[in-house]
Amino acid sequence: MSFRPLLLAAPAILMAGLVLATPASAAVGSVLDDDLLELAQATPPAPPAAGTDRRDRMANFNPKAFCLDRVARRAGNRTYLKIKLDLKPEQMTAWDAFAKASDAADVKDTARCNALPPEMKDRPTYVDRLTMEETYMKARVERIEAVKPSLTALYTTLSPEQKTVLDRPRPIGGMMGGGKMRRHHGGPR
Fold this sequence. Notes:
The chain is mostly helical. It has helices spanning 4-19, 26-41, 54-59, 63-85, 92-114, 126-157, 160-167, 174-177. It has two domains: 4-41, no CATH class; 54-177. Helices cover 68% and strands 0% of the residues. It is elongated.
């Protein structure tokens, strides 16, 4: 977690506290100042321990758990999306077809995940990494092909407002991929 955005905002917040420091707001300002001072004095996260380079972290990587987490996030994202879409009764048949296709894809993905090792003994070679990426991409395409027809049918039933909810950009992996924004080589952190 980075405190940089909070620290950059601190001078503006402190100035606002000084400008608004009337007798009635003095107590609130002092609490805010104490909180900011405490935040400014907070110790940044410790760097990784000596000897824990990328290879060491890679050795602790659990491909099976990582994969199963992605499946769980996708299922959670579908539930979130269903609530956000505020579907009408006449849209539920299309939603149910989409959910059924997604659930079937999750079952296949879970089986793939369970076939993965729970730990990586050695750092994979370049060819191993390329093979893993290819396998993942093939599974991803298979999932898209399985889910897209029912998602397309659902999309046609949505109102413009609901389409706006569904069309909103999502982090890489989005609704069906799950996960956080990822940093690509050479890209911003």
